[in-house]
Amino acid sequence: NPFYSQVLQSSVNIIAKDTEAKKVAQEVEYDEKRRAKQKFQFMESKLCTKKVNIEKKCDQIEVMNLQIKELAEQVEACKAERDEVKKHYDDVMNKEGNVIAKLKFQVEILDKKVTARMAEHEQTVAKYNEVKQKGKEDIYNKDLLIQRLDFDTARVEKSIPKIEADLVILEQMARK
Question: Are 18 and 135 in contact (CB under 8 A)?
Fold first, then answer.
């Protein structure tokens, strides 16, 4: 059906334009989040250096006990982050599975209905799926990078107050 081919071609063009617009928006968001993460990492590095210098002045047994406590807290935080990442991964995989199942169902119905002009139809559908999948992959890959930046930024934002609190304790210990 020539009308059906025109509709698919039109869908391909819309998806391609939409994908380009989303890619541009993602680039801007990625750059902003990358810069924010770098800023927090720099601050974290400076605080860690200060903390290590103060720890050198303190009783090593007390410092060791403090470090053991910190490690236990970090392990728990990492476990929670791992669970969150796994849940997100499972959610994405479920959504993708549903999309694939729907697409397979649509292909079966189309194969039953379309007999004439099969070559033209197959070319158009293949192009449609290729553009759609490529667009999804481009968006999905950048989304993963953005989400990783969110996780890293959140971790650094959480660690800074803890390090500052540790610095206060260590400075008091150093004065004794």
Answer: yes
Residues 107-136: b if buried by 16+ CB within 10 A, e if exposed? eeeeeeeeeeeeeebeebbeebeebbeebe
Tokens, residue 135: 């667009």
83: tokens are 């669970």
**pTM value surpassing 0.85:** no
Nearest to 157 by CA among 13, 33, 12: 33
CA distance 127 to 121: 10
Q: What are the tens digits of pLDDT across the range 31-77?
A: 999 999 999 999 999 999 999 999 899 998 999 998 999 999 999 99
Helix, strand, coil shares, percent, the chain, to 5: 95, 0, 5
- Side-chain half-sphere of 15: how many Cα atoms within 13 Å? 19
